[in-house]
Amino acid sequence: MRIATWNVNSVNARLTNVMEWLADAKPDVLGLQEIKCPDDKFPRLEFEAAGWRVAVHGQKSYNGVAILARHPIDNVVTELAGDPADEQARWIEADIAGIRVVSLYLPNGNPAPGEKFTYKLGWMRRMIDRAQELLAEGRPLVLAGDYNICPTAADVYDPEGWKADALCRPESRALYRELCHLGLTEAFRALHPEPGRYSFWDYQGGAWPRGEGLRIDHLLLSPQAADRLVACDIDKAPRGKDKASDHTPVWVELA
């Protein structure tokens, strides 16, 4: 079972690239983030024509998450409990082939400190609460998405220059560690301890050709999923295409 995550930065603008990658990489499940469209503008028919089942939690112009799968998608949840006033579309979870799969888009949080950073930390606390509930079920679980967090200095090309950014601040990293310490395994780092591997390169300042990246897209596995971990990697190729997203896919293979 191959499960991937990709912040596509507008699914309609990136549809050709996504369809090409799906055909080449052949994942069983793909979690999408920043689809940037409401449910009725999501290219459902195009994906279904290619054999994909679809679950969407969209929002006009901003945010939005979705799950594509080759298997039936059941028991879909599109709200992260704890803040009834939160209308941002950042969370979707579902049962797929015996695995609970989450596609999440964690808030950026900049500028920090500030209102957006406070929202980020509160959202992370709600995510931790939900992760505890899901882990208590004792089933395979994959939390896939754009976490907007560089867990350590090894995950950012310029640690000193980014230390005050919401993606690298100690408060963000502390909550990420708390999440992992619930018993989750970060799939990529479990197999790739080397620094300098990134999943995001900003459009500004020539970050892509200069190799100035961040690793902010992660796949966290419950013990039942981690026991099945075979491989995990970052596929840089889509970032080099025309009209590319500023993120690139990350995938995990489970036995």
UniProtKB/TrEMBL annotation:
Domain named Endonuclease/exonuclease/phosphatase is located at 4-247
Please provide, alphabetically and separated by semicolons, the GO molecular function terms listed in this UniProt record: DNA binding; double-stranded DNA 3'-5' DNA exonuclease activity; endonuclease activity; metal ion binding
Provide the residue positions that the database annotates as binding Mg(2+): N7, E34, D146, N148, D246, H247
| Sites annotated Interaction with DNA substrate | H247
Query: According to its UniProt record, which cofactors does this protein need?
Result: Mg(2+); Mn(2+)
From the Swiss-Prot or TrEMBL record, give the protein name.
Answer: Exodeoxyribonuclease III
For whether the record's keyword set contains Hydrolase, the answer is yes
One biological process GO term for this chain?
DNA repair
Similarity annotation: Belongs to the DNA repair enzymes AP/ExoA family.
Q: Which UniProt keywords apply?
A: Hydrolase, Magnesium, Manganese, Metal-binding
Would the keyword Phosphoprotein turn up in this protein's UniProt record? no
Cofactor descriptive note: Probably binds two magnesium or manganese ions per subunit.
